[in-house]
# Entry
Amino acid sequence: AACAGPPGATGPQRLVDNSALSVQDILSSENDRLNAATLLPRARGAVVCPRRFRAAFFAGGEGGGCVLLGRDAAGSWSSPAFYVLGSASFGLQAGIRDSQTLILVMNDRALDAMINRQFTLGADASLAVLHVGGAVEGAITTALGADLVAFSRSRGLYAGVALDGTVLQPQPEWDQAYYGRAVVA
# Structure
C-alpha cells in the first residue's frame, strides 16, 4: 500500500481512484461527529490516504500511499501530488489495523508546509492538529482554530500506548509516473 518504490503503470491512478472512494466513505460515515462535509468547503487542501496499514507487537510500523490536493482562490481542486505517510512506534501496543484517513488542510500556511518539505505530523510546533476518529466526538468550534483536521475510519483490532511520529513524505517518482514527466507539488 505504501508508495516506497517505483510505481507500476496503474499504481498512481489506482491510488487516485481509491482516494476518491475513501473521501466518499468518510464524508458519508454515520459516525462522523465533527462532520467533515461541513469543513471540506473551507479547506485549502486535503491529504487522502485510502489505506494505511498498522501492525505492532511492542514495536510497530504504519504506512500507506496518499494524495495531496490543493484548492486555488476560485475554489477549484488541483491535480494530485503523491506522498507516503509512515510512522514507527515503540510502546505497550499490539494488533493490526487498516485505516482510511482524510486530513483537511485548513489554511495556506499548513498547505505550504506540506508542499515545501518533508512534514512530520504533530512535531511541527507551529501547526495545530485535531484528530477525529470514527467514535470520537468533537465540536465544530474546536476545529476552527486547527491548521489540520484529520478524520479516520479503521478496521481491525489494535490497542496500546506508543510514542510515534508520523511523516508525510513526497513521492516524486509517483508524480513522474502519473504525469509522464518530472513535476513538483
User: Anything to note?
Assistant: Confidence is low (pLDDT under 50) at residues 133-143.
